Amino acid sequence: MVTTSQHIVCTACGQTNRIPSPRTPDKGHCGRCGTTLAVNKPVDIDAAMLAKLQARDEGIFVLDVWAPWCGPCRMMAPAYEQAASHFGGAVRFFKIDSQAHPEAGSRLQVRGIPALFLFKDGRIIAQQAGAQTRDALIGWIEQTATPKISS
Hints:
Layout: E1 5-9, E2 16-20, E3 43-44, H1 47-56, E4 60-66, H2 71-87, E5 92-97, H3 102-107, E6 115-120, E7 123-129, H4 134-144
Parallel strand pairs: 3-5, 4-5
Antiparallel strand pairs: 1-2, 4-6, 6-7
Helix pairs in contact: 2-4
């Protein structure tokens, strides 16, 4: 019997972990630090962690590029948290502060914030700009992500 797996980067320590498919990241723990690989809330990351995720992660995740001075970003934050809770860790949600990490925004060619990116296997599979509601975020992720995410 052939067992397939996917590589998931732990955002706490940077270790790449292998989890058996079709297990979702919320069911796995980091082999180095023991941290749960996915939680049902957004996690703040920096530019170095984003680079690791893009280079080595094979899961599905959403990235919100935002800034503390951005009114629409702050307005969307509760909806982003609710969408993360809706997926229960099956889809990971990350946030990166474009003011603190301008190189990340530049590398992603962000022209305005908030900017949302949906990744699979370290590659951008969809992106959109502007504040979104909880339902709009959930719909966008469910329609775009393959294989389909069961919510």
